[in-house]
Backbone:
């Protein structure tokens, strides 16, 4: 087996004396095999996300990046990590600085991570790959719709050419028609840029559409994991079965036959 | 015979912009109507206008008839007596709808005492009955709890119990399950269905989520840009009959909720 991009082994995270957000989680993110992490409130999704992004350290257990533990005090190592592992958050209204122009927002990781090369050209390139014209660079986030703002956030994440894109509920704040466009965009970017997606979501359907593997998190533990198709069509665990049964879906339009 | 009739409801701002344009629909006692639309469609504003809760600077014209009485023509004090008592509401986020400084018991028995003129003890008993109606079993614990001590699903049940406190004839629910986990959402939707069944009130469910509407409602109003695109039924919309915009919404909802199919073997 090749070295995973990210790996959590026996990870726990405790807050205060009593709150155990994660209670012993193993997770591998391998290159080219997107992972969807699904679960409800309180499952530990956000805590797991912070550990995957090296924004927090586990109480016990290890988190490795390309086979090595990441020392969060080693600034050069953290910069290399951040170039390689980027994130898109749920709500672009709060993740984009309203006082900065789009060009500056998208170039921000290039500046802060000291990426070499022509930043302006890179910004136009990533804006084009998310379907935005180069002339948006002079405008402010407020001048865009929710879906367009999420495209801007995705462009910013792509700017330093990461190999992993971590997305935290990337479409939950969007209207349904826009949601579909952003899901399609993520699928296209995954294929064109060879991105490995790590999707943290309560929305099982979008994980089904974007990730090869699915991890079901419940009460701080991984209760089920496997190939997405298997987990979503033939769940073994009662909790996964309950979760799937609860998702409202439209009945099919045409009767079979 | 319709119980609540919204007829040509139009909302304009003081500077003359039209936010709602001639919205028309009706709902009968015991019926379940879904109002669906994306952000900016005017669905929530419709609910606020029906309740007489429009923000300052907005003016509603047209008619909102409850059993023939035009609510838009009522003086504010008479409207206060209608709101909550005859037309009640449930909002998206129970944590903002509930008073954080008041126990659940006081929050539910308050309106009960106000509208039904019951004694303190009788109001408390009525509050316990309402909690049982929304399928909360440990009523004593919940009555003595503050909202933050309850889970999201319990809070939404409590706000539903409050809405039902005065035995309203119409319940307006604006995205009542959007803030909830899916397993809790499924329970609350079932509960809404059950409440309509048992009390015979008219339910108006306002949401962006077509699969949620499809679980509960039969009649459907599709809104876009402040106007009604069409009045239809859930089965007709799902079958693809009717307006192109409705078909787009249905297709998009199918696409985003589609799960992988088992591999053919």
Residues:
């Amino acid at each position: 087996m090749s070295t995973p991009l990210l790996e959590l082994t026996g990870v726990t995270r405790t807050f205060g004396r009593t709150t155990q957000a994660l209670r012993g989680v193993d997770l591998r993110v391998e290159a080219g095999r997107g992972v969807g992490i699904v679960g409800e409130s309180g499952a530990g999704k956000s805590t797991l996300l912070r550990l995957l992004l090296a924004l927090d350290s586990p109480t016990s257990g290890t988190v490795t990046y390309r086979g090595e533990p990441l020392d969060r005090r080693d600034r050069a190592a953290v910069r290399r990590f951040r170039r390689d592992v980027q994130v898109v958050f749920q709500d672009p209204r709060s993740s984009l600085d309203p006082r900065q122009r789009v060009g500056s927002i998208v170039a921000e990781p290039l500046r802060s991570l000291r990426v070499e090369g022509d930043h302006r050209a890179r910004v136009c390139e990533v804006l084009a790959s998310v379907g935005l014209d180069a002339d948006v660079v002079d405008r402010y986030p407020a001048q865009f719709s929710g879906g367009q703002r999420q495209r801007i956030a995705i462009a910013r994440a792509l700017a330093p050419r990461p190999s992993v894109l971590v997305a935290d509920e990337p479409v939950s704040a969007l209207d349904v028609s826009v949601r579909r466009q952003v899901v399609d965009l993520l699928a296209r970017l995954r294929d064109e840029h060879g991105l490995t997606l790590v999707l943290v979501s309560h929305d099982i359907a979008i994980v089904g559409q974007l990730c090869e593997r699915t991890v079901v998190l419940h009460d701080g533990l991984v209760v089920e994991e496997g190939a997405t198709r298997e987990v979503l069509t033939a769940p073994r665990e009662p909790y996964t079965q309950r979760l799937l049964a609860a998702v409202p879906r439209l009945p099919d339009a045409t009767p079979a036959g | 015979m319709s119980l609540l009739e919204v007829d040509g409801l139009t909302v304009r701002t003081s500077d003359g912009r039209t936010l709602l344009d001639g919205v028309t629909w009706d709902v009968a006692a015991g019926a379940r109507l879904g109002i669906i639309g994306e952000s900016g469609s005017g669905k929530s504003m419709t609910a606020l206008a029906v309740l007489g809760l429009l923000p300052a600077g907005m003016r509603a014209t047209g008619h909102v008839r409850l059993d023939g009485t035009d609510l838009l023509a009522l003086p504010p004090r008479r409207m206060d007596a209608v709101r909550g008592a005859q037309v009640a509401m449930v909002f998206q986020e129970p944590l903002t709808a509930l008073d954080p400084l008041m126990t659940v018991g006081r929050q539910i028995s308050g309106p009960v005492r106000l509208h039904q003129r019951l004694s303190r003890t009788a109001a408390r008993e009525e509050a316990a009955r309402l909690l049982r109606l929304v399928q909360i079993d440990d009523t004593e614990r919940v009555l003595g709890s503050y909202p933050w001590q309850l889970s999201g699903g319990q809070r939404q049940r409590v706000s539903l119990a409050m809405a039902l406190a005065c035995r309203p004839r119409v319940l307006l629910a604006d995205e009542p399950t959007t803030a909830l986990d899916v397993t809790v959402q499924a329970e609350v939707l079932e509960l809404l269905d059950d409440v309509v069944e048992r009390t015979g009130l008219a339910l108006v469910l306002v949401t962006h989520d077509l699969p949620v509407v499809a679980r509960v409602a039969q009649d459907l109003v599709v809104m876009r840009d402040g106007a009604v695109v069409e009045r239809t039924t859930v089965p007709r919309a799902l079958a693809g009959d009717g307006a192109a915009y409705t078909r787009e919404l249905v297709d998009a909802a199918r696409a985003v909720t589609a799960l992988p199919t088992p591999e053919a073997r």
